[in-house]
Design goal:
Structural class: alpha/beta
Strand content: 15-25%
Distance between the termini: 58 Å
Number of helices: 13
Number of strands: 17
Order of helices and strands: HEEEHHEHEHEHEHEHEEEEHHEEHEEHEH
Bound molecules: pyridoxal-5'-phosphate
Radius of gyration: 22 Å
Shape: globular
CATH architecture of the largest domain: 3-Layer(aba) Sandwich
Number of domains: 2
Helix content: 25-40%
CATH superfamily of the largest domain: Type I PLP-dependent aspartate aminotransferase-like (Major domain)
Length: 410
């Protein structure tokens, strides 16, 4: 039987070797989790063991070693499917969320879009969920409609409803959780509404999987993407979930080995199922690492993670409540552990540089959300993003360092 679920940030930290390193000679306070997460020893070991004991190319190897690699690759796909509550025949491995969104745009959307059809996006999308849609809009004559973000960081549901009701609307692509505002979009409700109008929904889950335990069947999305590296797994591995019934209508994304049935110069036929979308040698060690990350997460009590991350956010706000000129961007009641902010009269890059000198790793810039930055009226903001291994002490150090930085800069 499975072990009881646990959650203690101080215990969890011990599983992440990198968290004990220094940054500029100070203990590292890692608050850049929305950019990438750190990796537990279990994931590092799984990748190491793969190369020490099991490395071989997957598919069509007859020797034992090749079978072992193949089995590990298949087990990872199954673990991910179980984790998301879907079938392994619906899980496509990619390089990451970006490749996943490009794949969906090219393989699913481009063949069905007609001139005048509408692709609905939102103002809070990451560039990865904007640019691929602009590319297919250009090639098909489809049009992009953008749902505005309200002052608190929530979506303008009225406008969204208007867009969805338009008979030309075909696709809605939106993030589950905003990497800037922390907004958790009410996706189940939105998806039901979209489906009632026959609109297919692509969910960008890059920022939701690290914070929430998801059941994709219950959420009801047609497609879901995420990146392994933001889910405590290696870089260069990611996942597309595609509903089984949509796969046969999708055209191949890349051609090459492993995605074919028969190849000849008079014509080639393609493999069926998810295989058709995995051309070439895949990132097997990455998939194994992602499988290990999910195994690690299976013992974590996610509701407690959510409570903990919200409490870090609450503490941050309390500690900074006397900081003059501070603005937090994104204030929806149920937001994820992302604290995006500006301080009047201070450039965010200068803040991040002074924080770095005190060991605190934060991110500044446009966060791959230039349209959202234009909307909120700042070319750049600073962001501290939390994970389950961050502690109240981390937040205290961040707040103290930030106050000192602002004092120096003003
Ligand atoms: C990080 C991120 C992406 C892109 O992920 P990559 O790992 O860079 O491919 C897409 N959407 C959101 C919301 C993200 O945070």
């Amino acid at each position: 039987m499975s072990k009881p679920l646990t959650f203690d940030p101080y215990e969890i930290r011990k599983d992440f070797p990198i968290l004990s390193r220094k940054n500029r000679g100070k203990p590292l306070v890692y608050l850049d989790n929305a950019a990438t997460s750190q990796k537990p020893q279990m994931v590092i070991d799984a990748v190491k063991e793969y190369y020490e004991c099991n490395n071989s190319n997957v598919h069509r190897g007859v020797y034992e070693l090749a079978e072992d690699a193949e089995n590990l690759y298949r087990d990872s796909r199954q673990k991910i499917a179980n984790w998301l509550g879907v079938g392994s025949e619906e899980i496509i491995f990619t390089r990451g969320a970006t490749e996943g969104l490009n794949m969906i745009a090219r393989s699913f959307a481009e063949p069905i879009l007609k001139p005048g059809n509408q692709i609905i996006l939102t103002e809070m999308e990451h560039h990865a969920n904007i640019v691929p849609w602009q590319m297919v809009a250009q090639s098909t004559g489809a049009e992009i409609r953008v749902v505005p973000v309200l002052d608190d960081g929530s979506l303008d549901r009225e406008i969204l409803s208007q867009f969805l009701a338009n008979p030309q609307s075909t696709i809605l692509a939106l993030c589950h959780v905003s990497n800037v505002l922390g907004t958790v979009n009410p996706v189940k409700e939105i998806i039901e509404e979209a489906h009632s109008h026959g609109v297919k929904v692509i969910l960008d889950g890059a920022q939701s999987v690290p914070h929430l335990k998801l059941d994709l069947r219950n959420i009801g999305c047609d497609f879901f993407v995420f990146s392994g590296h933001k889910l405590f797994a290696p870089m260069g591995i990611g996942v597309v979930f595609a509903k089984k019934e949509l796969l046969p209508d999708m055209v191949p994304y890349q051609g090459g080995g492993d995605m074919i049935d028969q190849v000849s110069f008079s014509g080639t036929t393609y493999a069926s199922g998810v295989q058709r979308f995995e051309a070439g040698t895949p990132n097997v060690s990455g998939a194994v690492g992602l499988g290990a990350a999910i195994k690690y997460l299976e013992n974590i009590d996610f509701p407690k993670v959510d409570t903990h991350e919200k409490s870090l956010l609450k503490t941050t706000r309390e500690l900074l409540s006397d900081l003059r000129g501070l603005t937090e961007h994104g204030t929806t009641p149920n937001k994820a552990g992302v604290f995006c902010f500006t301080v009047a009269g201070v450039h965010p890059h200068d803040l991040a540089t002074l924080l770095d000198a005190e060991g605190v790793a934060t991110r500044t810039g446009h966060h791959c959300c230039q349209p959202l930055m234009q909307k909120i009226g700042y070319p750049a903001t600073a962001r501290a993003s939390f994970s389950f291994y961050n502690t109240e002490q981390d937040v205290q150090t961040f707040a103290d360092s930030l106050k000192r930085a602002v004092k120096l800069l003003l």
